[in-house]
Amino acid sequence: MNTQPDYLDGEEQTVVLVMTSGPSTPARCATPFYLGSVLAAMDADVHLFFTMEGVKLMQKGVAEGLQAMEGGKYLIDFIRDAKRAGVTLHVCDPALPGYGLDPATDLIDEVDHVARASDLGDLMLRGDKVLSF
Known about the structure:
Blueprint: E1 14-19, H1 31-41, E2 45-50, H2 75-85, E3 88-92, E4 113-115, H3 117-126, E5 129-132
């Protein structure tokens, strides 16, 4: 009898975190990066996909001045922690024009991939777990 939980079976899991929250709801913005860092440290393949207002978090200058709670870490520090842990950051290309963002000039260096909606679909279909914030 296997006494360890299924999620500890030694096989890598793919986790997709879909981030639709943005600067208008800062209290919701740090947890996905923190959770992504923890999961990546547990050897999960973690992808954060930013769409809707979430794309604003990847805009230069936004995360540097945003805190989830007063006196807390700046969001850019959570982003950099997630990157160091191995989390992949995807930004939804179709959402960028609605916020006046140019992917060539307006996004932070930590972004790995400017993606299509079909890329999100692919991630969701192959992911073991999909969460949204």
